[in-house]
Amino acid sequence: MADTFDRRLTPARPDVAAAFLKGKVEALRFVEGEKRRVAIGHASLRRAPRPDAMLETELLFGEEVTVYDELEGWAWVQNATDGYVGYVPSAALSEETGPGATHRVSALRTLLFPSASIKEPPDDALSMNAAVSVVDFEDRFAVLDTGAYAIAKHIAPLEETESDPVAVAERFIGAPYLWGGRTSLGLDCSALVQTALAACGVSAPRDSDMQEAALGRPLALSEARRGDLIFWKGHVALVRDAQTLIHANAFAMAVAIEPLAEALARISKAGDEVTSVRRID
């Protein structure tokens, strides 16, 4: 495969590749792929088709994927949300894409119930920005196309977005740091940024290097204000105000607010300097 193709975003292996890559990469066969959607609260997307393989990222309920190959209970997929490629358990995917999402989860997490009763044991839990299709409302519940019942005030129409990504990120304070994680049960620095921006209607790539290359416009660190992104090699944080930032980080092993000057000094001492500051207008 040509070096210009990013492994994380390129559905190509020596034996099989996506049809749209024909003529661009070498593979024994090219396939169109099959559209499916994630059918559980969240699913691990791994680098190899085995449960102990490195966690690349996580897929959220309702996200659409293209399946290019399946083997021994694993599906090799590309996520439509951010283009990430990897292996997910086939059992985590539905056989059909469904009618399409109408709402997204706006709470950190919400539970799915088998009936319109909070006294019933929940069947699953959905994370922020999970996509759901609502077919009806019943009292305090939204009835999903799957037959599950979600708390209506925990979801919002897709066109209804938030205005402050920092305020969204602050809801995750204390959530554990997890490399590759994308939910409040555990997430990494770029997932926090991706999630906060998505809640505000801004699509962002999955990883910090991709975000630095694709998002916003550059500015001086001295000009940074609330909502700007500060990048280091392999790391990203959201500016909270003139004195603080918020980020998911392996120093605290959690999402935390940290004095900006202290963070800059600590990370610089480890040998990493700020590579850019970017503003999404």
The largest β sheet comes out as:
6 strands, antiparallel
Please count the helical segments: 4
Give Rg in angstroms.
Answer: 20 Å
Oligomer: single chain
Q: Could you give a quick summary of the protein structure above?
A:
The protein is built from 4 helices and 24 strands.
Which terms summarize this structure?
281 residues; mainly beta; five-stranded antiparallel β-sheet
Structure, described:
The chain is mainly beta. The chain is built from four helices and 24 strands. A six-stranded antiparallel β-sheet has the order 19-24-20-21-22-23. It has a five-stranded antiparallel β-sheet with strand order 11-10-15-14-13, with no helix packed on it. The protein has a four-stranded antiparallel β-sheet with strand order 3-6-7-8, with no helix packed on it. A hairpin with a 2-residue loop joins strand 20 (229-232) and strand 21. It is globular, with a radius of gyration of 20 Å. The model has no long low-confidence stretch (mean pLDDT 96).
